[in-house]
């Protein structure tokens, strides 16, 4: 069996209804732009409060996806965005292509 490498990123999903829906929102968004999602782990749950009442549920998750050869993830000061291939680029990172898979 060939060896594989996976990248892990953290995302925060929000919901006005529940932590489950907050986590699902983060996974759904990641699935729109990242390929080969493998595992999502809830690492933190919290709530946004307003006037002593719950305004939103937040779930911080760690998502792993298969690392593509030819791409290098480096730190950046840019906000979240999707590149021209539709990949989610998390806040603080940029992909720089080093091969044909980066086009």
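-> sequence recovered:
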């Amino acid at each position: 069996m060939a060896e594989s490498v996976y990248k892990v990123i953290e995302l925060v999903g929000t919901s006005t209804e529940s932590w489950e829906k907050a986590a699902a929102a983060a996974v759904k968004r990641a699935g729109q732009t990242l390929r080969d999602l493998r595992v999502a782990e809830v690492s933190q749950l919290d709530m946004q409060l307003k006037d002593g009442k719950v305004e939103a549920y937040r779930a911080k998750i760690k998502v792993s996806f298969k690392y593509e050869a030819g791409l290098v993830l480096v730190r950046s000061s840019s906000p979240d965005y999707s590149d021209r291939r539709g990949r989610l680029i998390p806040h603080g990172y940029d992909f720089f292509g080093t091969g044909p898979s980066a086009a």
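The chain has one helix and seven strands.
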